[in-house]
Design a protein that fits this description.
The protein is α/β, with parallel strands linked by helices. The chain folds into 2 domains: 123 residues, Cobalt-precorrin-4 Transmethylase, domain 1; 91 residues, Methyltransferase, Cobalt-precorrin-4 Transmethylase, Domain 2, CATH 3.30.950.10. Helices cover 30% and strands 22% of the residues. It is built from 6 helices and 10 strands. Strands 3-2-4-1-5 form a 5-stranded parallel sheet, sandwiched between helices. Strands 6-7-10-8-9 form a 5-stranded mixed sheet, with helices on one face. Helix 3 crosses helix 4. The longest helix is centred in the middle third of the chain and has 20 residues. The radius of gyration is 19 Å and the shape is elongated. The protein starts with a strand and ends with a strand.
Length: 223
């Protein structure tokens, strides 16, 4: 009998934001801990989770390599290799848990793994985590949406500044000059978050004081 595959969101960085369910599954049900990484016990998701559940250090480790590239051939090959390694553990009757930043349903590699493995008849369960933009909004006591306000989440600089609601712009680090000009021209208010919940966290609420480049873990909320 094959084991269950859990997709676990560890939140944006603060280990205290991990859910009780995520911690329980990792502590009591998980045999194999999987996560993006080249070496065992490394990677951002693992480093967050281990602060909340130190016991995962002693469990079987399964680091999975996901190269930072847009080349679909390379990505497909990496995804397939990861799927095969997870299936190998599941076929031994082991329960495996894949750790992912934020929530596994929002722009996460976990969704590719989960769907590929579920399509082959394995049991897959998803455990929600706090999305980075929700944690960011909480930092400023900023409601993302009120009343009938609309929300649009976009993973690039290709957004419509006239959208009549809140814009959540993900992965903005490499496109800030274009994004800042677009927002400035629209007269809207923007907040930039870098490394939310992680060491080196920075929050900017003045578009004229925002840098032109930030790291990978950056997002904007535009009101």
């Amino acid at each position: 009998m094959s084991g269950t595959f859990y997709l676990i969101g560890v939140g944006p960085g603060d280990p205290e934001l991990m859910t009780m369910k995520a911690c329980r599954v990792l502590m009591d049900e998980t045999d194999v801990v999987a996560y993006p990484g080249v070496e065992a016990r490394t990677g951002v998701a693992f480093e967050i989770a281990v602060q909340a559940v130190p016991q995962i250090k002693e469990k079987e480790q399964l680091p999975l390599r996901f190269p930072m590239t847009t080349d679909q051939i390379i990505l497909s090959s990496a995804h397939e290799a990861a799927v095969q390694r997870v299936k190998c553990a599941l076929d031994q009757g082991k329960t495996a848990s894949f750790l992912t930043l934020g929530d596994p349903s929002v722009y996460s590699t976990a969704s590719y793994l989960g769907e590929a493995i579920r399509s082959e008849g394995y049991t897959v369960e998803m455990i929600s985590g706090v999305p980075s933009f929700c944690a960011a909004a909480a930092k400023l006591l900023l409601p993302i949406a009120s009343g009938n306000e609309q929300v649009q989440i976009i993973p690039s600089e290709e957004f419509d500044s006239s959208f009549p609601g809140t814009l959540i712009l993900m992965k903005v680090g490499n496109h800030l000059p274009q994004i800042k000009k677009k927002i400035s021209d629209s007269g809207r208010k923007a907040y930039l978050f870098e490394n939310c919940g992680m060491p080196g966290e920075q929050i900017y609420s003045d578009i004229h004081k925002m840098p032109d480049r930030t790291g990978y873990y950056s997002l904007m909320i535009v009101k």
